[in-house]
Write a structure and sequence with these properties.
- There is one protein chain.
- By secondary structure, this protein is of the alpha/beta class.
- It contains 19 helices and 27 strands.
- Helix 2 packs across helix 4, helix 2 packs across helix 6 and helix 11 runs parallel beside helix 13.
Length: 556
């Protein structure tokens, strides 16, 4: 059958505006006629000047509709003049792997099929995001352009007569409009594993893992990381096969919510609490987030994880070779890493939520380690957060110090003090009342009379030092991002932060962040230490009134 290019008439769909990391909607929305086609065409059109003859990477987390969307994207890219597609086998690539493949092949970018930590299955979520040539999520100017194109699209291009078995690794060559078109189906794991071997000392880690032997439980939560986990931890580092669980990627993640936190990774938490383990770890659907727990399920907050890794970076060969530049965190993330930066004489950057904001700093050579409180940690080896990398970093630290996770944290707090931290998530709330709540709170806290006010609860009093809607000026390109989250900073450094998440597929997710620094009282119970600020935050925001919720969906 001859390959023919068809131009299909279409109309815009409302709401194709990418959020913090791509477009996320229910599967049934992406299955609407022309919905996915429109958005993919707009991604390509946003790169119109360079799309001809380009190389793109395509892959996703294996959730429902991933394979079909991959095949659709191949046909649309063929019709639009893309020269080469590098596609993960069966359409599967972890988000960190996509970033690595883009960078190692100098590709124009990549189309990533994921809704990250959101549930999968025919009744749940799907997502598409575009990563640029540096391997990182598209910046605001690109996603804004994609959205603008989506509001005016009238046609998309697609080919007929092109059929590829994406389950078979190999190279497929075609001619489309008298130009060569190549689709290379890749081993989903090899490129990423090779990169990890360059960063970490696998021989030393294997001796450490097998020598004790190290008792670990690594939970892929039926997401994309399963194959990577088996290859790295079992085949390369010598962990026992029963040290890794739920390693088969499933379209609905086996009915699990693939979000690595204390609520949705309860199966892991319970197993480690009840068993004899040195380390437990879990990953989200696309493999960029991680949760670390120690013996008896001792929980490491993402803020503390970032700070500890920063303190011990020099035990990782990659940083010995390439040096240590600055550190960065998202604004809602507790400032534990700031203290490490000061002690080590490194720059520290505070950016809005969204990994794309770290990319410019990395590309400019000013940043080598960064993290978000939403279980994201990574370095400048790629331009995405990287769950497996974070676990390998922790094992490297355990090997270097000879200590367990709890002892490592306790020693860190004694040296730096402790940033107690919690996050309350209120999921799928009504969008309109939540917007009203945010507007009212912003007016309250930005009134000049709010600064200097005192709030008391449970015998503790906090005085407002700064209150604003966070804005960020990129120090590299001077671009400005405004309205990135409401924050109240008190005289003692304690903070209340509230923002609406951009990662949900429906309704509004309200995120309330509370953190408080203690220099000496570092072994307290976080829930007790933070209770006064939590109550003050609920009072100022009137959150129960606007959301109708008496308790959060998830507490981290």
């Amino acid at each position: 059958m001859a390959i023919t290019v068809n131009t299909i008439s279409t109309k815009p769909f409302e709401g194709q505006k990418p959020g913090t990391s791509g477009l996320r909607k229910k599967v049934k929305v992406f299955l609407e006629p022309n919905y996915t086609e429109n958005f993919v065409q707009c991604i390509l059109d946003s790169n119109l000047s360079s799309i001809g003859g380009s190389t793109l990477v395509v892959g996703g987390d294996g959730r429902y509709f991933c394979k079909e969307a991959t095949e659709l994207i191949i046909r649309i890219c063929a019709a639009n003049g893309v020269s080469t597609l590098l596609v993960g086998q069966n359409g599967i690539l972890s988000t960190p792997a996509v970033s690595s493949i883009i960078r190692s092949n100098k590709a124009l970018g990549g189309i990533v099929l994921t809704a990250s930590h959101n549930p999968g299955g025919p009744e749940n979520d799907f997502g598409i995001k575009f990563n640029c040539e540096n391997g990182g999520p598209a910046p605001d100017q690109v996603t804004n352009k994609i959205y603008q194109l989506s509001t005016a699209i009238t046609e998309y291009k697609i080919v007929d007569g092109l059929s590829i078995d994406i389950s078979k690794i190999g190279t497929n060559k075609f001619v489309v409009n008298d130009k060569p078109f190549t689709v290379e189906i890749l081993d989903s794991v090899k490129n990423y594993v090779d990169l990890m071997k360059e960063i970490f000392d696998f021989d030393k880690l294997k001796t450490f893992v097998t020598g004790k032997p190290m008792k670990m439980r690594i939970d892929s939560m039926n997401g994309v990381t399963g194959s990577y986990v088996n290859e790295i931890f079992v085949n390369c580092l010598g962990a026992k096969p029963d040290n890794v669980v739920r390693t088969i990627p499933l379209p609905d993640f086996g009915g699990a919510h693939p979000d690595p936190n204390l609520t949705y990774a309860k199966e892991l938490v319970d197993a480690v609490r009840q068993g004899d383990y040195d380390l437990g770890a879990a990953f989200d659907g696309d493999g960029d987030r991680n949760m670390i727990i120690g013996e008896k399920a001792f929980f490491v907050t993402p803020s503390d994880s970032l700070a500890v890794i920063a303190h011990y970076l020099e035990c990782i060969p990659y940083f010995k070779k390439n040096g240590i530049q600055g550190f960065a965190r998202s604004m809602p993330t507790a400032s534990a890493v700031d203290l490490v930066a000061v002690k080590k004489g490194k720059d520290i950057f505070e950016v809005p939520t969204g990994w794309k904001y770290f990319g410019n700093l990395m590309d400019a050579g000013r940043l080598c380690l960064c993290g978000e409180e939403s279980f994201g940690t990574g370095s400048n080896h790629i331009r995405e957060k990287d769950g497996i990398w974070a676990v390998l970093a922790w094992i490297s630290i355990m090997q270097h110090t000879g200590k367990g996770i709890k002892d490592i944290l306790t020693a860190h707090w004694k040296e730096y003090g402790r940033n107690y931290f919690t996050r309350y998530d209120y999921e799928e709330c009504g969008l309109e009342p939540c917007n009203e709540m945010m507007d009212k709170m912003e007016k309250t806290i930005t009134d000049p009379s709010f600064t200097g006010k005192e709030f008391s609860f449970g015998g503790k009093t906090y005085k407002v030092k700064v209150a604003d809607n966070f804005s960020y000026t990129d120090p590299v390109d001077k671009s400005v991002s405004t309205k990135q989250g409401l924050r109240i900073v008190f005289d003692d450094g304690s903070r209340i932060v509230m923002r609406l998440s951009g990662t949900g597929s429906s309704g509004a997710t309200v995120r309330l962040y509370i953190d408080s620094y203690e220099k000496d009282n570092v072994l307290g119970l976080a829930s007790e230490m933070l209770e006064p600020l939590i109550q003050i935050a609920l009072q100022i925001s009137e959150l129960p009134k606007f959301t109708g919720r008496s308790a959060p969906t998830v507490i981290t």
